[in-house]
Amino acid sequence: MAPGMLYVTMQPEPGLSLDQFHEWYNNEHGPTRLRLPQIFLNGLRYRATDGLQPEFLAAYDVTHMSHLETPTYTDLRANRSQREAETIGQVDVKRYFFDEISAHSASPTNRPARIEHYTDDEAEGTVLVSVELSLKSDTPEAEEAAEKWYTEEHIPMLRKIPGWLRTRILRTSSLEESSEKKIVALHDYAKDNGLEGPEHKAAMASTSYRDEVWGKYVANKTRRQYKLFYVFGPAPRDLSSLSRLPASAAFTSSDSKTSTTPGSSAVIRSFVTGTQDGVEIPYRLEGNPAPGAPTVAFCNSLLTSLEMWDEFIKILKAKRPDLRILRYDTRGRHAIPSSAEPVPATLDLLADDLAEVLAALRIPKLHALIGVSMGGATTLKFALKYPQKLSKFIACDFNVASSEANTKAWKERIALAEEDIGKLAGLTVERWFHPHTMTDKKAVAQWMTDMVAANNVQGFKFSCQALWDYNMRDEMKECCVPGLFVVGEGDGKGALVKAMDGFKHLLGKDGAELKVVPMAGHLPMSESPEAFWEAVDAFL
């Protein structure tokens, strides 16, 4: 059985809120399918522009149509969430299975033929013309004849139309129970195209070849025209629809890995799969719900979670409502799945993890990346390895190179964690925090101690190895992304201030400015979030 397509038309009933329909589809239905890359290559959503119904179309390229008969896929439909069952019960849904016969693409010099490889800005607004030819049942050679006409005459004419991107020819799949056989031609065009222009009219004109094929083999023709408005990734990201829903529309998945908070302060909590070794990366997305809002991402330190940024994020959301905010738990926070082989982390691997998170959320470029400690080293490594994905960065309380003494200390901390991680947590926070924090902000110190104590021991054991043996001194000289360095004045009793002051000039051609946060230690954004904001405001 060939590769093919799952082709789904939908018409919501008048009583169903379109925001509810889109939020469910974009944040639950689509991502669960895109998390099966062995089955689904993509998921594209279209809205009709021809005034006809059904108004909505979803098209999924399938790697091998036989996968749609396996429990991996069928269980998705059998085990629907209550919300999905209630929503889809208010939608007229028709599902079609098509096998691919052939595909024909333009040869662009700088754009891929597959629409999902475009950025959202490039993809949204592209045009799909879907033409269904119902074939006469008494002519077994009809399919071959129709496909031959497309290949030999029609597609060469379509290629002349400005903005033509590709044409795919499909047939009714053998998975379909229907006896009616169809040829479906899907024609993709750029936003700016020559539809209805002279080249298009010439392609639609009668020819002797066309008239012969259609007269002998085609019983009926249906033509629909759509515009693409959403491209799925394997992670939910639609804050826009979510922000317009009432609090009662909050959702939590059966495994509790995904949840949404609707309303003006919309939040999506979910996870990304697809890392090199199968480790899941939890994330939290919030802030400006506009799909194109500039995004700031945060990379936490070893032994902490994305919640370490909580108090600073409150300030950021108030001061910069224009920003979308992405936080994620770096590998090592949680248990390593039984299906994954434990792998010692490296800064390269940590940078790759972030690239995977951005890809899953279809974020082509960050406005800024902010990281601290191991997250600060990861931030610099990401800027060096993926400069095209980042406009600027802020790296805090980190070193550009490891030392033998540090490696020995990490091994001792692993041994202590395996014995009593609670004891490690107390010693760690006392080492991290400024004496002022320990004495005058005891609630903050206890909050961080509890956070560290909740870290998975095995995760810590393998993730801390990223800090054992690395040196970015030479490569940071080639950095082309502007950066700011920040450090708490009491970090390492002032030793890290001296260290960062010593390597700040190595960044790129002009070096980096170093901001020192007073009355703070290793995590200034957690200890003194207001002072940290003052340090980063202008650069951010």
Layout of helices and strands:
Blueprint: E1 4-12, H1 18-34, E2 44-48, E3 56-62, H2 71-78, H3 82-88, E4 91-105, H4 120-123, E5 127-135, H5 142-158, E6 164-172, E7 182-189, H6 198-204, H7 208-217, E8 218-231, H8 239-243, E9 251-252, E10 259-261, E11 267-272, E12 281-287, E13 295-299, H9 310-319, E14 324-328, H10 347-360, E15 368-372, H11 374-385, E16 393-396, H12 404-432, H13 435-440, H14 442-453, H15 457-463, E17 483-488, H16 495-503, E18 513-517, H17 524-527, H18 529-536
Shape: elongated
Output the strand order for the largest sheet: 9-10-11-12-14-13-15-16-17-18
The largest pleated sheet is described as:
10 strands, mixed
Number of strands: 18
State which percent range the strand residues make up.
Answer: 15-25%
CATH H-level name of the largest domain... which superfamily?
Alpha/Beta hydrolase fold, catalytic domain
CATH topology of the largest domain: Rossmann fold
CATH class of the largest domain: Alpha Beta
- In CATH, the architecture of the largest domain is 3-Layer(aba) Sandwich
Query: Would you tell me the structural class of the helices and strands?
Result: alpha+beta
Helix count equals: 18
Protein name: Alpha/Beta hydrolase protein
Pfam families: Abhydrolase_1
GO molecular function, one term: hydrolase activity
Domain AB hydrolase-1: 294-410
